[in-house]
Design a protein that fits this description.
Blueprint: E1 2-6, E2 10-12, E3 27-34, E4 48-52, E5 58-61, E6 80-83, E7 89-96, E8 101-110, E9 117-127, E10 135-141, E11 144-146, E12 155-163, E13 179-184, E14 191-194, E15 197-199, E16 201-204, E17 210-216, E18 226-233, E19 246-256, E20 262-266, E21 273-277, E22 292-305, E23 317-323, E24 327-328, E25 337-338, E26 341-347, E27 353-355, E28 373-376, E29 389-398, E30 401-404, E31 424-429, E32 435-436, E33 439-441, E34 447-455, E35 462-472, E36 477-487, E37 495-499, E38 503-504, E39 508-516, E40 529-533, E41 539-542, E42 545-546, E43 548-550, E44 560-568, E45 577-581, E46 587-592, E47 598-602, E48 605-606, E49 609-616, E50 629-633, E51 637-639, E52 650-656, E53 671-677, E54 685-691
Parallel strand pairs: 2-9, 11-19, 38-46, 48-54
Antiparallel strand pairs: 1-3, 3-7, 4-6, 4-8, 5-7, 8-9, 10-12, 12-17, 13-16, 13-18, 14-15, 14-17, 18-19, 20-22, 21-22, 22-34, 23-33, 23-35, 24-25, 26-27, 26-31, 27-30, 28-29, 28-31, 29-30, 32-34, 35-36, 37-39, 39-44, 40-43, 40-45, 41-42, 41-44, 45-46, 47-49, 49-52, 50-53, 51-52, 53-54
Length: 712
């Protein structure tokens, strides 16, 4: 036989889910004893098993095992466990949880004499509060519906959760109703509907503490969100016989006409770029064969809302467009600036005329023409939100006057049309190198997405993307637009490399910084920042800027820029350094003051290929006929021999990155190092960082972490 005894079998509700601990008021100590058929306590030859029937009411835990110092078994909560007993005796613990009720704890063991299973049960009661309502909460799903006939969801389920004073679900009310639902205020013809009928108020019953009805929208738009109230009776959990002690909760369901009023362009931060590939058949294993086709696709999304900030009706069509020309200054002065642009645009409210007193519509950038896009940045000037418009040019009258194919908005969001005159920024242009999918439809969140497609040879170029949709009224078709500049992005992570490394101190030398994306495509028109540190009493400057700043020229067609670096007054004891940055991981380059030899590497970071090594003396003179040797760690290797330095002190080493494992897109690339030296004891060294590749999948897209395997 088994005997179970407990310090108490009635436990208080553990609403805070406090874990077991010695002396806990929510815990009972349970003693287990096994006796043979003579009534003598007897050791078991196998483990006993302990189980609770309702773990949400009572959970079990064993005593703490002193041999496991890092784990407190007593503080655990389990449904069932087995354990070796001590000569037929054992103690374990039963702890209440957050649901009131009863739970049966069962102990079972195998009789060592007969092999039969012996069991014993003990019932625990977890006491709650009186079974009457103590609180009610409401939640609608969805929280936004649309007036009947516009194409969106017209009903919302309104759930009421009713709990007693111990936060337990109230008992089911049986034949009576225990929740009263009511519409508060104007519902625009909307009604409540449930098993208790339909109308502006209905009654419902809870099951396991939850009652539901649905709100059905009408055909008339109410002045604001519809408020719905649920009331329960704390006196008897019954609203069918009247309510003497009410508890209420209120929620709102927004009823929208679904009409577009606001539009915002967004750009995702992660996995937003697709690398496009050429399909050239399949290999012997059936996998597609091909390579990058030289273009990227960047996801552009918009968030569309009605005038109250609710999502527009799903399926609303949004038009997209992009312009990238005529533009000058790219990459020589950065991302470039549009030629046909100004800040004194004046669209005719409700008409098709556009003027700009200082415009050069026919001469700047070669001039504009029919079919070009006019972008008006109305949101940049207070009071002109409605004039954020994209329009197609129909004709150019002269440098300051043109006509578009469709009328501008009336700028009448206040109810009256307002004309602030020639105060709006504008750009006129066309797409020559980038394109965008022309249209997309909104989803249930009011989001629509498209792809901006562009050549990798133009990374960093300035473009302008626009999105626009129609918001029809009874008499006028109004457009809603958002216009945003977008510099064509590369694939992360960007790679910044600087040459030479290290840099000779107390000299004037040229330093080259190159910025590439993860596929080694140059990023053009980017300004590279720098900052000196550890100079002691010395000074450092690049292109005349002392201490910190940016290299004067942005990156060119090869993704590189060159600046003149000058340092003076640095001692050999100083830990001098210059740090370069361009939005990603910074690159630190030491500044070395030496009377001996100096070995430098160009570039200091590579994905494989030729590296130039330069050996000079302390005065900066080239050292010819010196043999350079190299050693690689972490996976890369040196291909072929390294010739002695020439008369200019230079030689070439070829590095292979094939020994580095590929990684998934978005993950840090594997790196190794190749260290070069003259081979003499204590000779100078130069270190080159080698980057591994990024894995792609059968569809030629970068593989995400969920499906990526680290193979080519």
């Amino acid at each position: 036989t088994i005997t179970l005894s407990a310090t108490r079998t009635t436990l208080p509700l553990n609403s805070g889910n406090v874990l077991p601990y010695p002396g806990s008021p929510f815990m009972a100590e349970v003693s287990f004893t096994y006796r043979n058929n003579a009534g003598v306590i007897t050791a078991l030859t196998s483990d006993a098993t302990f189980t609770t029937s309702s773990p949400s009411t009572v959970s079990l835990s064993p005593p703490d095992d002193p041999s496991t110092a890092d784990i407190n078994e007593m503080a655990s909560r389990v449904v069932s466990f087995h354990e070796t007993t001590n000569n037929g005796s054992y103690v374990f613990f039963a702890t209440s949880y957050d649901v009131a009720g009863t739970s049966t704890v069962t102990a079972s063991a195998t009789d060592p004499a007969t092999g039969r299973t012996v069991t014993k049960t003990l019932v625990f009661t977890v006491q709650g509060a009186p079974p009457l309502p103590g609180s009610v909460t409401l939640s609608p799903s969805p929280s936004v519906v649309y007036v009947a006939g516009v194409g969106g969801a017209t009903s919302s389920v309104i759930s009421a959760q009713v709990r007693d004073g111990a936060n337990q679900p109230v008992p089911d009310p049986g034949a009576v109703a225990n929740v009263l639902y009511e519409i508060v205020g104007d519902a625009g013809g909307g009604i409540l509907s449930g098993n208790g009928g339909s109308g502006s108020s209905v009654m419902a019953k809870t099951t396991a503490g939850i009652a539901t009805v649905s709100f059905q929208s009408g055909t008339i738009l109410p002045p604001g969100p519809v408020q719905i109230r649920a009331t329960v009776d704390r006196a008897d959990n019954n609203v069918s016989n009247g309510i003497s002690d009410p508890i209420s909760a209120t929620t709102s369901v927004a009823v929208s006409d679904g009409k577009l009023f606001g539009l915002v362009i967004t750009s995702p931060d992660l996995e937003a770029i697709t690398e496009n590939h050429v399909f050239a058949g399949v290999d012997a294993d059936g996998n597609p064969v091909g390579g990058l086709d030289g273009t990227y696709s960047f996801t552009i999304s918009v968030l569309a809302t009605d005038r109250q900030g609710n999502p527009v009706v799903p399926g609303t069509t949004i038009q997209f467009g992009v312009i990238d020309a005529p533009l000058s200054g790219f990459p020589g002065t950065g991302g470039g600036s549009f030629d046909i642009a100004g800040g004194d645009g004046n669209p005719l409210e409700g008409g098709t005329a556009f003027t700009a007193p200082t415009g050069h519509f026919m001469t700047a950038g070669g001039g504009a023409g029919p079919g070009d896009t006019l972008l008006v940045f109305g949101q940049l000037v207070t009071g002109n939100f409605d004039l954020e418009n994209a329009r197609v040019v129909q004709s150019i009258a002269n440098n300051t006057n043109l006509t578009v194919t469709s009328a501008f908005n009336r700028n009448d969001t206040t109810g009256s049309s307002v004309n602030y005159g020639p105060v709006l920024p504008y750009v006129i242009g066309r797409a020559t190198e980038a394109n965008v999918t022309a249209s997309a439809s909104t989803n249930s969140l009011g989001v629509a997405s498209t792809k901006l497609n562009y050549p990798v040879s133009r990374l960093g170029k300035q473009t302008i993307v626009w999105a626009q949709g129609n918001a029809a009224t009874s008499s006028v078709v109004r457009t809603v637009a958002d216009i945003q500049p977008v510099r064509l992005p590369g694939v992360a992570p960007a790679q910044l490399s600087v040459s030479p490394t290290p840099i000779a101190g107390n000299t004037t030398t040229q330093v080259t910084a190159c910025l590439l994306d993860a596929n080694n495509s140059p990023i053009l028109g980017a300004y590279i920042g720098f900052s000196f540190s550890g100079l002691g009493i010395g000074t450092g400057s690049i292109d005349g800027s002392t201490g910190s700043g940016v290299i004067d020229s942005p990156t060119g067609l090869d993704g590189c820029t060159t600046g003149v670096l000058t340092t003076a007054g640095i001692s050999s004891e100083d830990e001098a350094m210059v740090t370069f940055s361009a939005g990603g991981e910074p690159v630190e380059v030491p500044i070395v003051v030496s009377t001996g030899l100096l070995l430098q590497a160009f570039p200091s970071s590579t994905s494989g290929g030729a590296v130039t090594l330069l050996l000079t003396d302390g005065s900066g003179n080239p050292v010819p006929n010196a043999q350079i040797v190299g050693t690689c760690t972490g996976g890369p290797s040196i291909t072929g021999p390294i010739a002695p330095t020439g008369a200019n002190g230079r030689t070439i080493a070829t590095i292979s990155a094939s020994g580095l494992e590929y990684v998934c897109a978005g993950e840090p690339r594997n790196t190794g190092q190749c260290v070069f030296t003259t081979g003499s004891q204590g000779g100078p060294t130069a270190t080159v960082t080698v980057l591994g590749g990024v894995a792609v999948g059968p569809d030629f897209s970068p593989l995400g972490p969920g499906v990526c395997a680290p193979t080519p």
